[in-house]
Write a structure and sequence with these properties.
Elements: E1 6-8, E2 11-14, H1 18-21, E3 29-34, H2 64-78, E4 79-89, H3 94-102, E5 107-120, E6 126-135, E7 150-152, H4 167-177, E8 183-186, H5 193-201, E9 204-208, H6 212-228
Parallel strand pairs: 2-9, 3-4, 3-8, 5-7, 8-9
Antiparallel strand pairs: 1-2, 4-6, 5-6
Helix pairs in contact: 2-3, 4-5, 5-6
Length: about 230
């Protein structure tokens, strides 16, 4: 059994590959909220994933489709039948991610556009990212009827991770699809934004991150929350 890198007050973080620890998790999860490597340009602290299709005898370990299918299946196996799943992606990879997740038990219900208010790129600057909203067999209703598939939150500037997502955005998604005391899973935890959001909302959380550098940053963020708000921010 892989020991946690950090475990306090309902928040647990593992420093390993998610494919290794997910099969060992016992608790049933209520929500998956994650930002995996997109495989369309690489990112700091993660594998640069190949754009090639998975055919023949080619090595599968670098394939975005293989990774999404593997993690999608493992997440499906430990989530409740009414669970929701949010997966960040971009315009190059969202379709591959959808196919990979739908072949292992998830169903795409909506494609959310995150308007992040700035842009990068050589030609048309991309000022948005996509979020796949997937469900299982008997999905629960959203907690709010005021959920539209375009959401606007400013991107994180000078963050602790090169692809860090806004805490408020994660809180919004988490609040729509989970309740206080439930368990949120992030298989690609990065610098811990999902864990921070869970702590603020009174959720339990399980994060998995392969980079020890970012695990350390995530733990520092969580401990700073305790320092400045010892009673827990709700």
């Amino acid at each position: 059994m892989i020991e946690p890198y950090y475990s306090e007050n309902g928040i647990t973080l593992y420093n390993t590959r998610c494919e290794d620890v997910l099969p060992q998790l016992i608790e049933q999860v209520d929500l998956v909220l994650t930002d995996p490597p997109y495989g369309s340009g690489g990112r700091d602290g993660s594998t640069h994933l190949s754009d090639d299709a998975i055919t023949g005898n080619r090595m599968l370990s670098d394939s975005h489709i293989w990774l999404m299918r593997t993690v999608g299946a493992q997440c499906c196996g430990i989530t409740k039948d009414d669970s929701h799943c949010y997966v960040f992606s971009d315009w190059r990879k969202w379709r591959e991610t959808q196919i990979a997740f739908e072949t292992v038990g998830w169903e795409l219900r909506s494609l959310i556009v995150w308007d992040k208010g700035n842009g990068m790129g050589e030609f048309w600057r991309s000022s948005y990212e996509l979020i796949l909203f997937l469900t299982k067999r008997k999905p629960r209703k959203l907690n709010s009827g005021n959920c539209y598939n375009v959401v606007k939150y400013p991107s994180v500037k000078n963050g602790t991770h090169p692809t860090e997502k806004p805490v408020d955005l994660c809180i919004f998604l988490m609040g729509a699809s989970s309740n206080k005391g439930e368990i949120v899973l992030d298989p690609f935890a990065g610098s811990g934004t999902t864990l921070v959001a869970a702590k603020r909302l009174g959720r339990k959380a399980i994060g998995i991150e392969i980079s020890e550098k970012y695990c350390e940053i995530a733990v520092n963020r969580l401990r700073q929350m305790e320092l400045f708000n010892p009673q827990g921010e709700q």
